[in-house]
């Protein structure tokens, strides 16, 4: 195993742990933990195509606009290239959004970037899974 492949394996393991932590933070309503993981320029797209910044997403979590009751997030693949990592997987959740209880079933892509030796959550993009493949 080369140093590059070892470093990629280490980065993939780190990203997997960080993905678990970010989902756990939103389910727990731990805004400080979520904020510590997020890049200041976060672009968080929702399955209804609305896009939040870090500040607007935190505000929605803080005010209870989004309440996550459960999230499962199987990861299919993590691609690490330099100081960027892309997580390809799914996100299945029970949430309350704007006072309406919903069940989500999405394919998803999350983007992490490494800055100053820390990985930060930069972007998220879900795509609703068709009923036939849920």
What does this 3D model show about the protein?
With 134 residues, the chain is an alpha+beta fold. Helices cover 31% and strands 49% of the residues. The protein has three helices and seven strands; from the N terminus they run ααββαβββββ. Strands 1, 2, 3, 4, 5, 6 and 7 form a seven-stranded mixed β-sheet that branches. Helix 1 (3-28) runs antiparallel to helix 2 (31-37). The N and C termini lie far apart (38 Å). The mean pLDDT is 94.
Quick structural overview:
This protein has 3 helices and 7 strands. The protein has 134 residues and is an alpha+beta fold.
Per DSSP E runs of 2 or more residues, the count of β-strands stands at: 7
Structural class: alpha+beta
Tell me, rounded to a whole number, the average pLDDT: 94
Percent strand equals over 45%
Number of helices: 3
> Which radius of gyration do the C-alpha atoms yield?
15 Å
Listing every helix as H and every strand as E from the N terminus to the C terminus, the arrangement reads HHEEHEEEEE
Question: What distance lies between the first and last C-alpha atoms, to the nearest angstrom?
Answer: 38 Å
Sheet with the most strands, sense and barrel status:
7 strands, mixed
Shape: globular
Helix content: 25-40%
- Which ranges are low-confidence, i.e. pLDDT below 50, for 5 or more consecutive residues? none
Please identify the oligomeric state. Answer: single chain
């Amino acid at each position: 195993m080369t140093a590059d492949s070892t470093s990629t394996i280490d980065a993939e393991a780190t990203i997997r742990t960080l993905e678990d932590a970010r989902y756990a933070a939103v389910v727990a309503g731990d805004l400080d933990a979520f904020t510590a993981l997020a890049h200041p320029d976060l672009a968080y797209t929702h399955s209804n195509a609305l896009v939040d910044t870090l500040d607007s997403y935190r505000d929605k979590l803080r005010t209870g606009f989004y309440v996550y009751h459960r999230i499962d997030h199987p990861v299919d693949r993590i691609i690490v290239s330099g100081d960027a990592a892309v997580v390809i997987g799914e996100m299945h959740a029970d949430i309350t959004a704007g006072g309406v209880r919903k069940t989500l079933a999405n394919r998803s892509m999350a983007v992490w970037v490494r800055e100053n030796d820390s990985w930060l959550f930069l972007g998220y993009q879900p795509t609703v899974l068709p009923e036939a493949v849920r």
